[in-house]
Every structure is written in structure tokens, then in C-alpha cells.
Amino acid sequence: MADVVVEQGRLARTASPRKRASLRNAMGRKSTVAFFLTLPLILLIALLVLYPAFYSVYLATLNKAMTKFVGLSNFTFLFKRETFWMVVRQSCIFAITAVVFKALIGFIVAHFVHNIPGKKQRKWRGMLLVPWVIPPAMSTLAWLWLFDPSYSAFNYTLSFFGVGPIPWLGDTFWARFSVILVNVWYGAPFFLIMYLAALKSVPDQLYEAAAIDGANWWQKIWHITLPMMRNIIAITTLFSLIVTFANFDIVRILTSGGPLDRTHLFATWAFQVGIQSSDIPLGACVSLFMVPILAVAAVFILRDVNKRGNEA
Amino acid sequence: MSTLSIDKAGPTRKVKLRSMSRDRTWALRWSYFFLVLFAIFFLIPPVYMLITSLKSSAEISAATNPWWVFHPTLSNYVELLTSNQFLRFFWNSSIISIVVVIVTMLISIPAAFALARMKFWGSATLATGVFLTYLIPDSLLFIPLFKVLATVQEFTGIPLLNRWYVLVFIYPTLTVPFCTWIMIGYFASIPKELDEAALIDGASWLQTLTRIFIPVALPGLIAATIFAFTVSWAQFLYPLVFTTSIDQLVLPVGITTTLIKGDVFNWGQIMTGALLGAAPPLIIYAFLMDYYIAGLTAGATKG
Questions:
Q1: Taking CB atoms and an 8 Å limit, are A38 and B271 in contact across chains?
Q2: Could you give the CA distance from residue B278 to residue B46 in angstroms, rounded to a whole number?
Q3: How many CB atoms are located within 10 Å of the residue A216 CB?
Q4: DSSP per-residue codes, A239-286
Q5: How far apart are the first and last CA of chain B?
Q6: C-alpha B156: how far from chain center
Q7: Which of B8, B20, B42 to mutate to test the interface with A (most CBs of A within 10 A)?
Q8: Rounded to whole angstroms, how far apart are CA atoms A61 and A52?
Q9: Peptide bond before B110: cis, by omega within 30 degrees of 0?
Q10: B9 interaction partners in chain A (CB closer than 8 Å)
Q11: Which residues of A touch B43 (CB under 8 A)?
Q12: Is B264 helix (H, G, I), strand (E, B) or coil?
């Protein structure tokens, strides 16, 4: 409707020769303008995201020197390696444990922040979001120093409680624990902010009605808070699952996969195999194993985001 | 009937002796108690960075109480801020982040405008595609991108690997999808009457965008800018893979690779560098917290 008005107005005003007018019409036409406005975006995604993504599938079928097509032998080679299955297991443990703790801490702390009076909430929220703002590579360096074998500030503090020095990054269990701890520390504030925003959108009348009906705090959470926040919880958790599963910075700086590859994730192992040992096809192959879980999470996120869009 | 229900309610009321306001006070006290605990957990690393950055190497290796500075000194800061190498990292990071922010805005604002307002063939699919692109992590693309860059360099003779400017082309793949996505949300929330009025007055599509959409959606624009800046500033994997020479490194990679010399960790300087590297995002956050949080939550709530 609006288009017609514009074009008529132009024709009447300019009264230029027909040829120029038709060119102008073409330029002013909605679809042409829209095409030119989205062209940079389409080019960027096609050239630097989609093309490399499909190219890595091709790369994964080459030999180490990238001269010969070897089919699926890179994949079968990986399946036979003990380290590969360890990386699969570790990535799953890492992602699931970290996301569960991030979600729990975020949920609990969001309630505490929501409880306190409105004016002070801003200050606390600002303080609690700091881990998310610091670049992860920088904050992981601080954790590395906190975990330092000989000068560990944690071990210094623990020694007052009679707890012996803990080999934070030297022992398999503690290394995995530390890596997950740092990830939880970094990611929990994101959940906190999302949940806090969701908590604020739950109408107070529901809680008042529940209180009059004699509901205790647990019933309020179970029957009001959780159902009202279900969508946000789902989107945040799935999104965090993707990011955590593909995490690189924390493990790379904290342990570089050690001790004895016991903390390697897909990303860090792909880096070690593909870039450091310069076996690009095998590295591409390793990182491709992230695709299935990412795809599943993405499909669910998309469903929830669309659902939310329809509700609004 | 009504008397019966009152009888039933009676005993349950008696069990709860505390009044509602006293319940509230206790809930508040417990909330503060746990908030303090969590705040300590969340703030230990940055505070420890600050503590260590004020210590001299002698004090660190003396292994005194790590949580206290006995002889505060600014020598670490002086040393880093006068070192050409560190300033070079800072400069590389700054220039890359600023250029990436500009490129991101130039790509995502027009695209978001087209996707939010001009329903054209495939626009819905493209919007979904943009969101999906945002979910593709950097750790999936760094190996093929490395190979692509090497091949392009070989064919055209333009040096791409080990050059900081290649990051300006790569970073938008991380920033543009999210920025486009939240700008679509902000643009879609602008009432249709506004741009219809502009069109009737004879404004072109571009004029509608620059005169109406950008000013009205300015908060969203600021949120997207902050997001693009912090993502480019913090990116670690791509520069680690694509750049190796010391004069081409960005801050996060520079600190982790050059300040750690062999087995000698100069922790005072590393922590100072990390703190200085964390400073720009922290300063932006301190001043524009509300925009920062709006951008954070917009990804899931708008759309």
C-alpha cells in the first residue's frame, strides 16, 4: 500500500522521461532495496561461515598432506583411538556438569537478588555480573595463578583448615574439577541475569493468590515460578550447552588438555591435532564431531524462540 | 458448607505462628548472607588480579600471605605501560575492535531493517538462518578458515596469515549474526504507523532508516555496539590460530604467549596485563550497565 503511494508521488513530481522513471521504480522497489540492504550480510555468512563449514567436511576426507582423497579413513582412525573416546566422554561430562551447576547457581542467586529491595538490586546485579564481563582468557589467567602448584592462594587458605595441598591442575579429578569450576564461575552470571529478567516478568498477583491459598515457598517455585520461566530456562540452558560444549579458552589456558589429555575437549584437541601437529584434515574431523549435538540443541532453541515470538 | 471450610483452615493457620512481615525480614537476611557468599566467589579472581598486580616479584616469590600486599608498588604497571610490545598488543586490539564494531554496524543495521520491515521472498528464512549462524561456534570454523586463508594467500599473493588485519574480516562472523538478530527485535517493536507516515511524506527507504529507525532504536544500537566490542576484544581462538609474530598479536594472545617465558611465570606482570586487558570492557560495563544487560537478555526475549 505504502509503496504505491510513494511511486505515484514520485512520478507526479519528477515527470521525467519514461526510461529513467522505470529505472527509478526498479531502484525504489521494495525487493530490490531489500536485496541490496541484506547483500553484505548474505555474502558474509555465505563466504565466511557456510563455505568454511562445508569445506571442513571436504577437508576431513583428505590425507595429512591434503593431496589425496581418503574417504572416511580419518573417521575410522579416530574411532580406533583411545584418546578420541576419552575426549568425547570428557566433553560431555564437562558440558553437562558445568551447565547444570551454572543453571542451579543462576537460579538460586537470581532469587536472592529478586528478594532484596529494588534500589539495592542494581548494585548487587552489577557486582555479580563481573565474571561475564571480563574476557575469559584474562580471568582464566587469574584462576591459573590461584591454582599455582607452589604459590596457590587456595592451598594457602586451606592450610589453615588443616586441608592438605590440593594438586588443582596436576591430578585428573582435580584438573577436571578446576576446569568445570572456572567455567561455572564464568557462565553462572549469564544465567543469573536471564533468570532475574524472567522472574521480574512473573506477575506478583500469582504469588499473592498462592500465599492466600496457603502455598509454601517450594510449592510457589514448583507451581508458579518454574512453569512461568520454562521457556527462558530452556533457551538459556540450550544456548549455554552449545557454548560450553564448544569451549576453548578455559581448558587451553588452564591445562592445555593435561594431565595426559585428561581434560581435553573437542575444541582444544582439534587445535592440538589440527594446528599444533599440523594435521589439518584430522583436526577438521575432530571438530566436526561437535556438529550433531550442536544441531540438536539448535533445533530445540529455534523451536522455543519461535514459540516465544508467537506468544508475544 | 462454609463453616466446614473455616474449620479446616483453622488448624493450618495456627501452625504458622510467625507473621508475614517477620518471614520477610528473615528471608531478606538470608538473601543478603548468601549474596555476600556468592559475591565473594564471583569477585575473588578479579580482586586477586589487583592484589598480585601491586606486588613486586620479590614479594611474590617470598610466599607471604597471598591475600595481602605488604609493599604496594606500581612498578608492574609502569613496566607494562612503557613496554612497546605491550602497547603494540593494546593498539592492535583497539584498532581491530573499533573497525569490527563499525563493519558490524554497517552490515547488520541495513540487514536488520530489511528483515524487520520489508517482507520479501525468503526474508523469514534468512532471519532464521542469521539466528542459526549465531549458534555456530568459533571452534568449529577455525580449522577450515585457516586452510581457506592459506589457499587464498597462495593464489592472490596477498599476505593474510599472521597479519592482524585478517581478524577484521573474520570477527564479523561472530558479531554480525547476533547484532542483526537483536536489531531485528528492536526494529520490529517500532510502531508501523511511524514509518508509514514517513513513506507518505515521500521519504525513501533509506531516509526512513536513517531518520526514524536508527534514532528510535538507539538503545538497541548501543547494546549491539557494546556486544560487538566486547566479543572482538575478548576473542582468543582466532588470533591464536591466525597470528604468530609478536607485532601482530592482540592483547589476550599476547599476554598468554609472551609474558609466560618458558617455565618462568612473572605473575606480577601477567596479572597486571590481564587486569589492563580486562579494563576496557569493565569500564564500558560500569558506565553502560543497563544497555549491556539489555543486549544480553534481548537475544532470547526478542524475536
A1: no
A2: 9
A3: 11
A4: HHHHHHHT--HHHHHHTTT-STTTT--HHHHHHIIIIIS--HHHHHHH
A5: 51
A6: 34
A7: B42
A8: 14
A9: no
A10: 214
A11: 127, 130
A12: strand
* Residue A226: all three cell numbers together: 518454574
Best to test chain B binding among A11, A31, A45 (most B CBs inside 10 Å): A45
Torsion sign, CA atoms A111, A115, A117, A118: positive
Contacts of A288 (CB under 8 A, 6+ apart): A56, A57, A60, B140
Return the half-sphere exposure (C-beta side, CA atoms, 13 A cut-off) of residue A272: 19
Other Cβ atoms closer than 10 A to A59? 24
| Number of neighbouring beta carbons within 10 Å of residue A30 | 16
Q: State pTM to two decimals.
A: 0.84
Matching residue, cell 584474562: A138
- pLDDT tens-digit profile, chain B (303 residues): 444 444 444 445 444 555 667 777 887 888 888 889 999 999 999 999 998 888 887 777 777 778 888 888 888 888 888 888 889 999 999 999 999 999 999 999 999 988 888 877 788 888 888 888 888 888 888 999 998 888 888 888 888 888 888 899 899 999 999 899 888 888 888 888 888 888 888 888 888 888 888 888 888 899 899 989 999 999 999 999 898 888 888 999 988 887 776 666 788 888 899 999 999 999 998 888 888 888 777 765 443
Q: Cβ of B123 under 8 Å from any chain A Cβ?
A: yes
Distance CA B103, CA A113 (A): 37
CA angle, residues B72, B77, B80, in degrees to nearest 5:
145
Rounded to whole angstroms, the Cα distance separating B123 from B106 reads 19
List residues bridging with B210 in a β-sheet. Answer: none
Calculate the alpha carbon distances from A246 to A66, A106, A199, B164 in Å: 25, 21, 29, 24
Query: A3-6 — which CB contacts under 8 Å span 24+ positions?
Result: A3/A29, A3/A30, A3/B199, A5/B199, A5/B200, A6/B199, A6/B202, A6/B204
Q: At what angle do helices A136-146 and B251-258 cross, to 10 degrees?
A: 30
CA distances from residue A137 to A182, B173, B221, B231, B270 in whole angstroms, order as listed: 11, 20, 27, 12, 12
What are the backbone angles phi and psi of residue A61, rounded to the nearest 5°?
A: -100, 10
